[in-house]
Design brief:
Blueprint (H helix, E strand, L loop, with lengths): L3 H26 L5 H5 L2 H21 L6 H18 L3 H22 L4
């Protein structure tokens, strides 16, 4: 059995952090950037920070010790490092993946029964 909300939180955090930090690393290392990141650099950063903030909020409400919140944060940061550092231009697709993962996380979170 898979915990879909866990996976969505890791994805939203990882892709969000990658999206928020990609323009910094791209400028520093001379990596290619998309038109949105060149013309309006604040928009991808805001999308990334919003996705990461919602994922961290989910991790803290789930419980940092028993609910796997620390694991969500750890795996999310590792995904961001891999996505930005290894794939380099993977952040371009994060413009689509981070908001989608965040919307799915929020919709699944809201439909879950309160305990």
């Amino acid at each position: 059995m898979f915990d879909n909300l866990f996976l969505l939180a890791v994805a939203a955090l990882g892709w969000g952090l990658s999206l928020a930090t990609y323009s910094y690393f791209a400028r520093r290392h001379g990596w290619p950037m998309g038109a949105l990141q060149i013309d309006f650099p604040a928009i991808p950063v805001l999308f990334g920070l919003a996705s990461a903030a919602i994922a961290i909020w989910f991790a803290t409400t789930r419980g940092l010790d028993d609910g796997g919140g620390w694991v969500i944060v750890l795996f999310g940061v590792l995904l961001a490092v891999f996505w930005t550092g290894f794939l380099r231009v993977g952040s371009q697709i994060s413009l689509f993946l981070a908001p989608i993962a965040t919307v799915l996380l929020v919709s699944g979170w809201l439909s879950a029964p309160l305990t």
